[in-house]
Amino acid sequence: MTTRVDLTAVQETYRLCYVCTPWAYFTRAPLDQQWGDHWERAPYTSVAGLPYGGEPDQILKVAFDAALLTPETGEHAHPFSVQEINDRRAPWLRTDSYFSGPTVHIMAGATLQRFTELVELAGGAVYAPVGWGQLPEPSCRPDTAC
Asked: What is the domain range of residue 66?
């Protein structure tokens, strides 16, 4: 059984700011104002902390499952900092030359909608927390008041 989460209302509001496979973090803040511990240091995988969420609902965390590489993996691996990646010097996620499908590069600042489209293009799926979506109203039974 699966539950579908409707993220239509926020798909253009949140932008990709951090990836720690299998998690992708999105922010409502301008990308140059979103920060975390040691985001200026490389390699980010060894030193960087998760994005700060100073305001309620500032950060949206989703899971993804796809054949995508992070900046420090694959044929073109390089130890970037979060700040460098968010400055778009490298994609957060990408396919590599041995990938048989279309070339995919997911850059910092990608909207939630674009992120989902690109992950699906790479043959994967995105999983959002149920609390962020609208659950269907319970159906009324004849013996209860609605």
From this structure: 8-132
